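Private note to self, pasted from the team thread so I don't lose it. Backbone tokens:
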């Protein structure tokens, strides 16, 4: 990165954005890396960085940010442990904090397995998260100055002995305090000197309490004496404390060796956590700036509703900025404090931010191009120290910019050509822009010169733009108008401020006619623009109203259709219920009539009842046919292959059955009520669990109903007399018609042939029967009759 590029980065205020980014980071090194970010110059790298930020934004929206608190640099500690050094408690606790953060981050990355995969998932998967070492450290070290008793059995044993010995010493000294020797004590207390238990003795009685003197008060009135009775116990206590220190040193050395053993994994975890900290800091900044990820374009940039990231998002004016697609140079004109420089900086700063992998405050569908350099000459460059005027300082920058410019450079010129003679400055500015364009660079420049407005209007690839100014309020609106040159408002502003009209007229007379005509054209253009904007706003309002009306109409139509469908469905359901009730009533009535007929044995009554029954059932079937098919339930999901003993549902029939066996070809032998049928695996679905229990109840109800109705595809009349067989046949045909069977099998046997003849004669007269035939080979031959129902 060249010095000029770095200077431009400072000029465009990227470091201020990075400071805001660093505020979102949790770790110290993460903050440092945020401040050190610099634009990437490879389009693939930029896209990867933007995708990482987008992934973090997505994850933050779902679960918040991962917990990275307490992560501190551990590389020096790991290096010392690797060389055999023993780490102190603070260093070990820092390593444990890294392991804890790694474990937490890994769990965070593995959470919600059904969420969409992101490009940073591999970072979470790469974390080692050594929970064993983490818990070993935290279980052994309670704080910087405290080792847990549970750190080792030896330490626990030593500390038990220390407590017991200390208690023994106190008991001896307490007896001394409560004895006759208490009068020799300055105070009836037990204290310590040089880690040994002592009592404070009055100086005049120092010889009355035999023992070792460990200290004397500053006034000399108190001697701190260790009575001879506790010397041995204090010695033992001192020895135990020495053993405790050695055991603590051993524990720390052991933990340090463990850290050295897993040093590479811990260091890798730390690096990944810092990387994740920076990525999620970018995500947090994206939320605070109300930003989004731009697309990477090859040709130019288009920033829709762009805002300067350092301005208050509630007050900053959003503008559409474009460069490099339809034109490669943008010349921005307008009054001072009108927002020209802010617009220029916005273009440069948003480009740099995107190349750093940051989301930018723009609207959706915005595009940026990746540049090798963004070079800017912005602001007052006057240098007293170098004896350079404003013009000279600008020119030094411009010379440097033109030396580095190429077709992968974005150049930003602020007040190009200012600080010198207007005519020469304008000519020089146009020449500089031409030179930069010849090198293939994209250029955005601000100016006051009217000559550059004409240059932009007459040069292909160069476009005018202006910052709008409200003459009535004497304030800029900060709106950028691309395609319209800025109009000079000096006379209008002066008149509004109270300058005499005569002076303004004298000033106008000094302007040549060409400039006057040019300003008049700009005035007309500005008026036309205002008129077009009003018409555009009115058209947009009308379009919105039409869209709302159309939406309301669609919703009302959908509501009416839903109500109509609901009413039709309800009416059909009620009609079917009435028909079902009529079928049940008819069935019961015909059963009673058949029973009466058998008792009375009157052929003419039987024929009349049979005709009426056929007519009634035919009418009911026609009525139900007009209602259309019954509503079908949605297709059930596929299940596992059925096995013997399973309860299954025949998908097309909606009937439940039990699997008796599975044939060699995979087909199933089923028992559905009193029926035995065959089916393929894809024609059934297995009913499991609670559903199976419910299905068994359905099967039982179905069996009961089938038995009650006799709705079987076959009837066995063998062993009956002719009259009994005809009665049973009538009941069977009734149930077959109610069950909507197409074909039935009547078993009458061969025997004398009396039942067979009676059955076939009866079938000839039955209005239920469309046709009938004797059974074929394999069907029972002449011992059965196959009948087709109407």
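Design output:
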């Amino acid at each position: 990165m060249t010095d000029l590029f770095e200077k431009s980065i400072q000029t465009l205020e990227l470091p201020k954005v990075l400071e805001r980014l660093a505020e979102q980071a949790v770790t110290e090194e993460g903050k440092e890396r945020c401040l050190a970010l610099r634009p990437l110059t490879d389009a693939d790298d930029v896209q990867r960085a933007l995708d990482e930020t987008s992934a973090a934004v997505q994850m933050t929206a779902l679960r918040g940010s991962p917990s990275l608190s307490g992560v501190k640099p551990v590389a020096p500690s790991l290096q010392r442990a690797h060389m055999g050094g023993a780490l102190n408690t603070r260093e070990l606790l820092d390593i444990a904090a890294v392991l804890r953060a790694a474990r937490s981050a890994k769990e965070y990355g593995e959470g919600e397995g059904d969420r969409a995969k992101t490009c940073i998932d591999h970072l979470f998967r790469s974390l080692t998260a050594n929970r064993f070492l983490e818990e070993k450290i935290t279980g052994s070290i309670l704080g910087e100055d405290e080792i847990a008793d549970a750190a080792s059995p030896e330490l626990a044993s030593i500390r038990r002995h220390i407590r017991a010995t200390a208690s023994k010493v106190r008991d001896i000294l307490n007896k001394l305090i409560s004895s006759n020797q208490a009068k020799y004590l300055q105070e009836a207390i037990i204290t310590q000197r040089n880690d040994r238990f002592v009592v404070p003795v009055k100086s005049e009685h120092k010889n009355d309490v035999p023992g070792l003197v460990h200290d004397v008060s500053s006034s000399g009135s108190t001697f701190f004496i260790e009575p001879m009775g506790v010397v041995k116990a204090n010695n033992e206590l001192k020895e135990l404390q020495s053993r405790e220190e050695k055991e603590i040193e051993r524990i720390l050395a052991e933990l340090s060796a463990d850290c050295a053993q897993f040093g590479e994994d811990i260091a890798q975890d730390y690096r990944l956590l810092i990387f994740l900290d920076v990525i999620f800091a970018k995500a947090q900044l994206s939320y605070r700036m109300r930003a989004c990820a731009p697309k990477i374009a090859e040709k130019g940039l288009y920033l829709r509703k762009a805002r300067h990231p350092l301005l208050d998002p509630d007050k900053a004016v959003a503008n559409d900025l474009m460069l490099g697609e339809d034109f490669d140079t943008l010349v921005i004109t307008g009054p001072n404090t009108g927002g020209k420089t802010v617009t220029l900086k916005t273009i440069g700063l948003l480009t740099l931010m995107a190349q750093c992998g940051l989301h930018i405050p723009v609207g959706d569908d915005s595009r940026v191009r990746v540049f090798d350099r963004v070079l800017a000459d912005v602001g007052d460059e006057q240098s007293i120290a170098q004896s350079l005027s404003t013009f000279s300082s600008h020119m030094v920058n411009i010379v440097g910019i033109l030396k580095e410019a190429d077709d992968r450079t974005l150049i930003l010129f602020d007040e190009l050509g200012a600080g010198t003679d207007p005519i020469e400055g304008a000519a020089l500015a146009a020449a500089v822009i031409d030179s930069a364009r010849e090198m293939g660079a994209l250029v955005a420049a601000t100016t006051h010169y009217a000559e550059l407005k004409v240059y932009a209007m007459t040069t292909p690839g160069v476009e005018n733009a202006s910052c709008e100014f409200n003459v009535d309020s004497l304030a800029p609106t900060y709106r950028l108008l691309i395609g319209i040159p800025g109009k000079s408002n000096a006379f209008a502003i002066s008149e509004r401020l109270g300058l005499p009209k005569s002076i303004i007229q004298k000033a106008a007379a000094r302007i040549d006619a060409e400039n006057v005509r040019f300003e008049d054209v700009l005035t007309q253009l500005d008026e036309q623009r205002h008129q077009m904007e009003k018409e555009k706003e009115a058209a947009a309002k009308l379009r919105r109203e039409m869209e709302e009306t159309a939406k309301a109409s669609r919703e009302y139509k959908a509501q009416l259709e839903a109500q109509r469908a609901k009413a039709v469905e309800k009416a059909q359901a009620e009609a079917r219920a009435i028909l079902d009730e009529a079928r049940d009533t008819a069935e019961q009535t015909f059963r009673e009539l058949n029973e009466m007929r058998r008792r009375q044995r009157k052929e003419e009554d039987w024929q009349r009842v049979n005709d009426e029954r056929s007519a009634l059932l035919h009418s009911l079937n026609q009525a139900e046919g007009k209602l259309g098919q019954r509503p079908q339930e949605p297709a059930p999901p596929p299940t596992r292959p059925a096995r013997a003993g399973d309860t299954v549902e025949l998908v097309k029939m909606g009937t439940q059955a039990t699997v008796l066996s599975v044939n060699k070809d995979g087909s199933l032998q089923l028992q559905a009520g009193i029926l035995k049928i065959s089916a393929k695996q894809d024609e059934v679905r297995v009913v499991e669990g609670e559903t199976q229990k419910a299905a068994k109840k359905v099967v039982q109800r179905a069996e009961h109903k089938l038995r009650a109705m006799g709705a079987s595809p076959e009837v066995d009349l063998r062993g009956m007399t002719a009259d009994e067989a005809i009665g049973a046949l009538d009941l069977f045909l009734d149930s077959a018609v109610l069950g909507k069977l197409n074909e039935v099998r009547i078993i009458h046997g061969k025997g004398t042939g009396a039942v067979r003849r009676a059955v076939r004669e009866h079938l000839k007269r039955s209005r239920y029967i469309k046709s009938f035939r004797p059974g074929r080979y394999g069907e029972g031959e002449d011992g059965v009759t196959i009948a087709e129902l109407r």
